[in-house]
Amino acid sequence: MGRKTMTLNLTDAEMAVLEEMCAKKDLSKTVLMRQALRLYQRVEERLENGGKLFFENEATAEKSEIMML
Questions:
Q1: Where are the alpha helices (DSSP H) in the chain?
Q2: Among 3, 4, 7, 34, whose Cα sits 20 to 30 Å from the Cα of 57?
């Protein structure tokens, strides 16, 4: 499987979030971005098949639907 290289331009705030998440998860930027891409792909597949995306607070059972564009 071949690999491709891309340049990603982020704002300072976006880069700070990326770096914070990498440090928190002990992951490289490349690994974190690959995981994010796979997650987004799975979410899109589910939504295309009529699924919905929710966050649920286990303590209160409160649910919030996530709307994707």
A1: 12-25, 29-48
A2: 34
What is the C-alpha separation between 27 and 24, in angstroms, rounded?
8
The domain total for the chain is 1
Answer yes or no: are the C-beta atoms of 63 and 56 closer than 8 Å: yes
26 belongs to a structural domain:
yes
The whole domain housing 48 covers 12-66
Q: What are phi and psi of 42, to 5 degrees?
A: -65, -40
Read off the pLDDT of residues 5-44 as tens digits, 9 standing for 90 and up. Answer: 999 999 999 999 999 999 999 999 999 999 999 999 999 9
In this prediction, residues 57-63 reach a mean pLDDT of 93
Bridge partner list, 55 = 64
The C-alpha atoms of residue 23 and residue 48 are separated, in whole angstroms, by 33
